[in-house]
Amino acid sequence: MSQTILVVDDIAANRSLLAATLEPKGYEVLLAPNGAAAVKVATRACPNLILMDVNMPEMDGYEACRQLKGTPGLSEISVIFITANDDPESLVKGFQAGGVDYITKPFKDQEVLMRVATHVKIN
What we know:
By secondary structure, the protein is α/β, with parallel strands linked by helices.
């Protein structure tokens, strides 16, 4: 059975790059351009894992994660933040919002694949 990964990033090139990394490994990839769309897609599709950018307009990744964690049926979905923010405050804020892991940009394909595989296996 294929695992579904929701990729959330306001930059289309980042969404495409992550999809191109994950799809050849057998993951079904869903895409969302912002936090609000991510909540809607997750509600409809209930993905196994979410890769979420932090810095997005309107609703940032932290707020989107908090909304997901506060929604019955979605609260158990693991969220891995992917962001250029690598300062300790951002890391802590991500975990406080409900994230389970953190990948810094520019990301390495192998790191993304290993972290995704680990979290899919755990869940």
